[in-house]
Amino acid sequence: MQFLPKTIPEIQSEIIPVKESPPELVTFDVGGMKCAGCAKAVERQLMQYSGVISACVNLAVEVATVECQPGTVDAEALAKKLTDNGFPSQSRLGENQREAEAATIERRQQEIRQQINQLTIALILIILSGLGHVLGTKAPILSNIWFHWGLATLALLLPGRPIIVDGCRSLWRNAPNMNTLVALGAVTAYTASNAALLFPRMGWECFFDEPVMLLGFILLGKTLEQQARRRAASALQALIALQPAKARLVDFKLPSLDLRSQELPLNSTSEVYDPQYIEIPADRVRVGEWLQVLPGEKIPVDGEICEGKTTIDESMLTGESMPVLKQPGDTVAAGTINKSGAVVMRATRTGKETTVAQMVALVQAAQTRKAPIQNLADTVAGYFVYGVMAISVLTFLFWYFAGTHIWPSVLVGQGAMDMGHGAMNMGNQLPIIHYQSPLLLSLKLAIAVLVIACPCALGLATPTAILVGSGIGAERGLLIRGGDVLERVHQLDTVVFDKTGTLTTGNLTLTDYLPIFQNSEWDLNSDINVGNKQDVGSTIEGVSGNRQDACSTIDGVSGNRQDACSTIDSKLLQIAAAVERGASHPIAAAILLEAQQQGLPLLAAEDFCTEPGFGVSALVEGRRVFAGNAEWMKEQGVAVATELSGSLQGKTAVYVASGGVLLGVIGLKDTLRPDAKAAVERLRGMGLRVMMLTGDTASAAAVTAQQLDLTPADVLAEVRPDGKARAIAALQAQGCKVAVVGDGINDAPALAQADVGIGLHCGTDVAVETAQIVLMRNALMDVVESIELGRATFNKIRQNLFWAFGYNTLGIPVAAGILLPATGILLSPAAAGAFMAFSSVSVVTNSLFLRRGFRA
After folding, report:
1. 498 has catalytic annotation
2. Residue 745 has what pLDDT?
3. Most buried residue among 162, 461, 511, 737 by CB atoms closer than 10 A?
């Protein structure tokens, strides 16, 4: 089967205006948020500040990201405004970022300790309250109504006090939250029970157990939720912990460095104990300084090995468990672990520029970006508490004025199955109440509506799933930039791969020399005689795919090779290498490497000029030389015979010309990555269309396509870098949702145009700004895994939102008594509080289940 890859016609580029002064991003740690209503209130307050363009608040990680006009926002003033409004905040600016992060972690741990203490007190009160029902007359004190009054009072004053205070403050600030609902429910139940206790002639029963149970369940749910959120954020905390604290600075002027020193002397009292090195904070290291790293220590900054040999454990950055051998000249990344030998390295990136610091920044940014599907939940959350309070009032009015008259049987105790734990009267015992007041029944239903509604589940549905998904990705070297990316990943139907350096290794090797030199200005008389020149310098028309002379292939080079051919080959390679010295491309690297291996001196060259997608030119020994593809030759007026192109079928051809005359052509061949075919097959098995996009020749693209079983319709060849974005736009115009996989540099326009750009991370430069997903291991199977992770995470988001909306949609009517007339089911305030507490726990737990599908 013959492959005829498509080619993209050249279209004049559009003029794109350059943006001025990109928006400034400011990040805050925000405390005091209890539910989605709080997060929405914080967003509103941030948006009211002058100069703020947009604000995004993440409830799960308690972080706010503000996009503002440069130089218009005082971060400290904005943080103070939030703090004054009840949300203690701190900006992540300044040199003490490490201290600020440590302070934030300590604050959250302190909050958890306080919650555990409050929960312990609440559980003790619940146990004492329950014993009164279990023991009955056997323990008169525990069943006494005043004893239960004391328990309820203590519950409100001790473990319930922070909830009630915060709920009242939030209501006063016109930003009611979950604590507002709980506080209204608990205080109303306590007040109604006091009224029944003080005015027994009303015929009400006391239910002091309700606020005790309600607050206990709420605190239990909040504690479990906090612990689950800590587990969800554990991957990011582990990533932050990778950043080393210390570095051992050595003097690069010393002629010899002692690499055998293993540790500080036990009796050392000074950091400076040896003239060869001194310990300093890792964030104080400057680029160019030399550092000593001993076995077992973390690499302090990004750098290059200068002396010594070792193996480095890079699993915390790439997910690859096998240590990697590092020798002088090799690069190392901060946070990786030196396993075997002591080395000396030179710092190349420090502080926020290191790989691990940029990974932390990417993951933190990803966790603050919302998926568009969350917008509905945010909109509902902004008005949720007001709506619940209104429904509670309507519930009370309906049952008091209409419901108890329409269905009088609901007032009979045996006819109403109270899903609580009993009631109390003025006696020492706790008898069953057979009749209840219409006012009290209406009040209990209204309280149940207040406490069963859960805005937390809505607020945690998206961020917890993103938190877990981004953490799993960070552990495996897959950096996904946010919830919006996850949603686009879920919608993908087409994956487009760049060829060179992505599907192939990018390590080109020379396979053919075809020197021409006919009628050229280059003087070869000093190298070969005229007779030999005539034999080798055959005409272009004589060159064909079946050519067998000694100059055709590198494999034919041997000790018997004709001297004339060898000389001409060397001259052609020398000229090509001189021109390619001005380019940074795999083709240029391959030609220069071959010239170096043959020991050829580089010719003097200057005035380099690169034309992306075509080739490069330079002045070599005073003559303008062009090296590039056939189209580049045509633009320079150089004729290239079709037979010559045919002789390099399936290879990358580099034509070399000068003075309008073709000097020769060099053939190069690339090899597929070992996992390329498997990755393509896996993607197809996921229902995705796989395509290849390349600037290489149609024949070279066809060879790679055959190896991957790609059809001609799925191959776009001879596309210049500026035409790749238009090729992706053409696919999108057909309704395709496209992901582009490339190296993030040459493919930047296509990565930016795609719905999802996937950048293969090369070296230690993790900041591939145009890609929405960055693959640290540079492996194609990670493309598959990143899409699978994106799909699984987005599915969790949908499950969480479905549960959150479904819970509130079903729970609020049940609490309002919709089942009471037909089934006799009455949801007590305590039972409603239990359901509310565990609804948010279930959302976070469901997000944690995401790890089950991605175990190592």
Report:
1. yes
2. 58
3. 461
CA-CA distance, 78 to 91, in Å (whole number)?
9
Number of neighbours of residue 204 by Cβ within 10 angstroms: 22
H-helix segments, 68-208: 75-84, 97-135, 140-143, 145-157, 161-172, 178-198
Which entry of 166, 302, 498, 714 is annotated as an active-site residue? Answer: 498
- Lookup result for tokens 């796989």: 690
For 435, phi and psi rounded to 5 degrees? Answer: -150, 140
Going by the DSSP 8-state scheme, the letter that residue 413 receives in this structure is: G
> Residue type for 845, please?
T
pLDDT in tens, 430-468: 344 445 688 888 998 999 998 888 777 888 888 888 888
The two three-digit tokens of residue 83, written as one number = 């703090």
The residue to which tokens 């000097």 are assigned: 663
Interatomic CA distance for residues 86 and 31, integer angstroms: 9
Report the amino acid identity of residue 656: V
pTM: 0.74
Distance CA 813, CA 832 (A): 12
CA-to-CA distance for 337 and 359, rounded, in angstroms? 17
Q: Assess contact for 504 and 668: CB atoms under 8 A.
A: no
Residue 90 phi/psi, 5° resolution? -150, 130
Query: 572 with 513: CB under 8 angstroms?
Result: yes
- Residue 303 forms beta bridges with which residues? 332, 347
Give the separation between CA 11 and CA 28, rounded to whole angstroms: 46
d(CA 489, CA 740): 11
**Phi, psi of 519, rounded to the nearest 5 degrees:** 60, 30
Q: Is 580:592 a contact under the CB 8 Å cutoff?
A: yes
H/E stretch holding 440 reads helix 438-452
pLDDT tens digits for range 542-592: 443 333 343 444 443 333 334 445 556 688 888 889 998 877 777 888 888
Please state, in angstroms and rounded to a whole number, the distance separating the CA atoms of residues 632 and 635: 5
Q: Are strands 652-658 and 494-498 parallel, antiparallel or unpaired?
A: unpaired
- How far apart CA 430 and CA 423 sit, in angstroms, is 7
Residue 287 pairs in a beta bridge with none
Q: Label residues 784-803 b or e (16+ Cβ within 10 Å = b).
A: bbbbbbbbbbbebbbbbbeb
At 97, which amino acid appears? Q
Handedness of CA 700, 701, 706, 711 (dihedral sign): negative
CA distance 152 to 194: 10
Q: Mean pLDDT in the chain? A: 78
Label residue 375 exposed, middle or buried (CB < 10 Å: 0-12, 13-18, 19+): exposed
Dihedral class, residue 544 (left if φ above 0, else alpha if ψ from -120 to 50, else beta): beta
